[in-house]
């Protein structure tokens, strides 16, 4: 079996917008980009003038559209890659990208099964690619984030008419829910056709256990987790 290595491509920054005080959406035009499926990610590589190079992986935030690739970057304190992308990157800058990467945590446009999406923090990004892809079936989204100031995409989620709820872990929700992590009361009581859970490792493990305790079939749960990477 021959494994084809994905080439590094040069993308030009065509758009930057703030999502929160510490998170930025970045849009690239990437000549040679062959498309992607919601749920996949890309590698970003930065190379200094002295030849030092480092790379990080970022989920793709929007469905395929020609050579357009959109990501969201959350600033990590002390992180060399996220600090540059959030604080220093400018329109017109060129960045190396490699992808798309991943096949397990993907949703195929046209799938007609009911879907539950559960996001922790920036784990909402690949789920947004699924939501933005447009589909004729029902989505349910449960989005856990520290505070309102840390939440991304809330206005857009309302515009989509998506059935969604936001769980704040550090402050009370507008509906009177006290601050706290996701519990069984925050998840639909009946299992979905498929569930996608994305967030920090501890979050993913806790949510997966809740889903299994509620009777979800393990084969219907797709998970994507992230942990400390140096930023």
UniProtKB/TrEMBL annotation:
List the cofactors: FAD
Instruction: Please list the residue ranges annotated as the FAD-binding FR-type domain.
Output: 6-107
**Residues covered by region (Disordered):** 170-194
Query: Mind telling me which PROSITE patterns this protein's record contains?
Result: FAD_FR (PS51384)
Question: What keywords were assigned to this record?
Answer: 2Fe-2S, Iron, Iron-sulfur, Metal-binding
Q: Which InterPro entries match?
A: Cbr1-like_FAD-bd_dom, FAD-bd_FR_type, FNR_nucleotide-bd, MRET, OxRdtase_FAD/NAD-bd, Riboflavin_synthase-like_b-brl
| Pfam families with a match to the protein in the record | FAD_binding_6, NAD_binding_1
PANTHER family named among the record's database cross-references: NADH OXIDOREDUCTASE HCR (PTHR47354), PROTEIN RFBI (PTHR47354:SF5)
Descriptive protein name: Ferredoxin-NADP reductase
Give the classification, highest ranks. Bacteria, Bacillati, Actinomycetota, Actinomycetes, Pseudonocardiales
